[in-house]
Amino acid sequence: MKGIAAMVLAVLLGVSASAWAQTGFVNVQKLILESKEGKKATQLIQEERQKKEKEVLAKKAELDALKEAIAKASAEKKDITALVKDYAEKEKELKRQAEDADLDLKMRDKELTDALLKKAGPALAKIAKDKKLDLVITNPAVVGYVAPEADITDAVVKELDKSAK
């Protein structure tokens, strides 16, 4: 039924049925995971993530030590007002630091993905031209189904890796 609807739509739009076969698809996630450039970008993100995690864990350890100091001071019937205030401030800092780290990593991931797609552009264009494709889709959100012959990801990865040498 969907095939008939697509053909009717193609006729109404003045597009021949063979034009639909001139569309390719590149799986960006696969491009990132399998290409040399994508693996480099993934490694960079992992290193940055580990660094940020260490910073957050150090801050958490500081907070845990302060929590123990509060418990000890409380058990000894000492004034804990300043310690509690310091704890609340450090807890806010930790939360803010964790949120900032997450946002920074997401932005960095997007930057590296955009840079990879820019580097992949010539390889993608070459493969599309070689296969006589009129359109290549890279956004998986707009694709409901991709026939295996329309997926040019492996060819783009190979071409990109050739140029990365």
TrEMBL record:
PANTHER family: CHAPERONE PROTEIN SKP. GO terms for cellular component: cytosol. Pfam families: OmpH. It comes from the Bacteria. Residues 1-21 form the signal peptide. It comes from Desulfolutivibrio sulfodismutans. GO terms for biological process: protein stabilization. The lineage of its organism: Bacteria, Pseudomonadati, Thermodesulfobacteriota, Desulfovibrionia, Desulfovibrionales. Keywords: Coiled coil, Signal. SMART domains: OmpH. Residues 44-104 form a coiled coil. This is OmpH family outer membrane protein. GO terms for molecular function: unfolded protein binding. InterPro entries: Chaperone_Skp, Skp_dom_sf. Belongs to the Skp family.
